[in-house]
Design goal:
Blueprint (H helix, E strand, L loop, with lengths): L1 H25 L3 H5 L3 H17 L4 H18 L7 H26 L6 H8 L9 H15 L8 H8 L14 H22 L10 H24 L6 H16 L14 H10 L5 H11 L7 E4 L13 E5 L11 E4 L1 E2 L2 E2 L5 E3 L9 H5 L6 H11 L19 H4 L13 E3 L1
Parallel strand pairs: 6-7
Antiparallel strand pairs: 1-2, 2-3, 3-6, 4-5
Length: 425
C-alpha cells in the first residue's frame, strides 16, 4: 500500500500540473499556448505511470491490479467538501481511466468493437512492453482523453457558473438548475476539445537520430488524432468508443464524493443510474450491461455486512463484515469480497467469499432472517459499523452496509488482494 500511495501521489502531482497548464491555456493567447509541448508531455507521463500500475503480465494479474487501484481509491478518497478539487482532478480521472481500460479490454475480447485496426492492435498486444502498439496507440490515448474530460472546468466561463461571477458567491457543490447544467456541460465539452485540438503538441525529441525523431513525432501525432476522436465521440450515446469513456465518468460521479448529493449507502444504485442514462441514449446500453458484468452492482472497496451461512439460522446472533475486492462477480448481485472479521473482531488474513443475495444484508431477504437481538448486542455491533447511529433506533435499525475506511487506514489491514481461498456464502 505504501508504494501504491507514492504512485498515487505522483499521479496527483502530474494531474495538478495538467490542471495548471489547462488554466493557463484558457487565459493565454492561443498561438502562445500551442507552441508549448509541456501539456502533452505531462499527460503522457501520467498515463504511462498509471498504465504501468494497472497492467499485469497476465489477464488475472491485470484484473487484480485494477481491482486494487479502484478499491484503494474508494477506501481512501477524501469525503470533506473542502477537498472536492482533489477528488475531481485526481481520484476521479484515475478511477475513470482504470475502469475504461477494463471495459475496453472486455469489449475487444468479446468482439463488441469490430474495428479491424483496434482488433489488430489488441490481438497483437504485448504485456509490459513499452513499444506495444496497443499500448501506444489505444491505451495511452484513451487515458489522456479521460484526463481531459474535466479540463473545461478551468475555463473562466465554467468557473462563473460554479462559483458565481462574484468570487465564491455560489457553492460549487450545489445542485445546478437545468439551464446552469446545460450551459456548464456545453462549455466544458467545447473547452476540453479546444484544449486538446490546439494545446496538444508532440513533445520535443531529444537525440541525434533523424529516423527516431521522425518516428517519435509520427507516434505522438497518431496518439493525438485518436485522443481527438475519443473526445469528439464521448457525448455520442451511440458510439462504442465514446461510451467507453463516458460510462466510467458517470460511474465515478456516483461512487466517489464530490457533490452534496453523495450518499455512501446509495452507491450500489450506480447500476440503476447507468441504465437510466442508457434509456436516455446518453451511452450505449450494451456497454452498460457489460460494465456491470465486470464490476457488479457493488463498487470495489464497498463494505458488505452479511450473515454467515449456517444450518440453524434461529440461533443467528451475529453478522460479519467484508470488503468488495474482485472484479467479474458470478452475477452483479453477488459480490466477491474479502472477509475481514470473525465474530465481529477485525482480523488479517481472511478468506475471499462470494456473498449471495440471501445472506447479504443490503437485500431484504437477508435482513428478514435476523432474529431479535438483545439491545446490548446491537449496541456493540452498530458501534463498529457506523458512528451516526442513534440508540433510540436500535430495535429497527439493521445495517445494510458498513464503511471500511477506518479499518483500511491501518497499514496492517490493507492486504485485501493477496491470494486467499474462496468460499461461497
Amino acid at each position: 500500500m505504501r508504494n501504491l500511495k507514492r504512485i498515487m501521489a505522483d499521479l496527483y502531482l502530474a494531474e495538478n500540473s495538467t490542471v495548471v497548464q489547462a488554466e493557463q491555456f484558457f487565459q493565454t493567447d492561443t498561438e502562445i499556448a500551442t507552441k508549448s509541448d509541456s501539456l502533452f508531455h505531462s499527460l503522457q507521463f501520467t498515463a504511462e505511470r498509471l498504465l504501468n500500475l494497472s497492467e499485469g503480465a497476465s489477464s488475472a494479474e491485470t484484473l487484480t491490479r485494477s481491482a486494487k487501484i479502484l478499491g484503494s481509491l474508494q477506501l481512501t478518497v477524501p469525503t470533506s467538501t473542502r477537498r472536492w478539487r482533489e477528488v475531481q482532478f485526481s481520484y476521479k480521472p484515475i478511477y475513470r481511466a482504470v475502469l475504461a481500460l477494463r471495459l475496453l479490454d472486455h469489449t475487444l475480447e468479446h468482439n463488441l468493437i469490430t474495428d479491424p485496426t483496434l482488433q489488430g492492435y489488441y490481438k497483437n498486444r504485448q504485456a509490459k512492453n513499452d513499444d506495444c502498439q496497443f499500448r501506444l496507440f489505444v491505451q495511452i490515448p484513451l487515458i489522456i482523453a479521460i484526463f481531459l474530460l474535466d479540463a473545461g472546468l478551468h475555463n473562466p466561463k465554467t468557473a462563473d457558473i460554479l462559483y458565481g461571477k462574484k468570487i465564491h458567491s455560489l457553492d460549487p457543490l450545489r445542485a445546478m438548475t437545468g439551464d446552469e447544467r446545460k450551459d456548464f456541460n456545453q462549455i466544458n465539452q467545447t473547452s476540453r476539445f479546444d484544449l486538446a485540438q490546439l494545446g496538444l503538441q508532440p513533445s520535443a525529441y531529444r537525440g541525434n537520430c533523424k529516423n527516431e525523431q521522425l518516428l517519435s513525432e509520427q507516434t505522438q501525432l497518431k496518439q493525438i488524432k485518436f485522443i481527438l476522436l475519443l473526445l469528439q465521440q464521448v457525448e455520442n450515446g451511440k458510439s462504442m468508443l465514446g461510451s467507453i469513456a463516458k460510462i466510467p465518468q458517470i460511474y465515478s460521479s456516483v461512487v466517489l464524493p464530490g457533490r452534496n448529493r453523495f450518499r455512501y449507502q446509495s452507491l450500489p444504485k450506480v447500476a440503476l443510474i447507468l441504465k437510466q442514462a442508457a434509456q436516455r441514449q446518453e451511452v450505449d446500453a450494451r456497454l452498460v450491461d457489460q460494465l456491470l458484468r465486470i464490476t457488479g452492482i457493488f463498487p470495489q472497496g464497498y463494505g458488505i455486512a452479511f450473515l454467515p451461512r449456517q444450518l440453524d439460522l434461529s440461533t443467528q446472533e451475529k453478522y460479519e463484515l467484508a470488503i468488495v475486492n474482485q472484479l467479474y462477480p458470478p452475477s452483479p448481485e453477488q459480490p466477491l469480497c474479502r472477509v475481514v472479521t470473525r465474530n465481529l473482531q477485525y482480523r488479517r488474513g481472511g478468506q475471499n467469499c462470494q456473498i449471495s443475495v440471501d445472506y447479504n444484508l443490503y437485500f431484504k431477504p437477508a435482513r428478514d432472517k435476523l432474529t431479535i437481538m438483545p439491545e446490548q448486542r446491537l449496541r456493540e455491533i452498530l458501534s463498529k459499523l457506523s458512528a451516526d447511529w442513534h440508540p433510540g433506533e436500535l430495535r429497527r435499525l439493521v445495517p445494510r452496509y458498513w464503511q471500511p475506511s477506518e479499518f483500511f487506514s491501518h497499514s496492517d489491514q490493507q492486504n485485501l488482494w493477496n491470494q486467499a481461498p474462496r468460499v461461497i456464502n
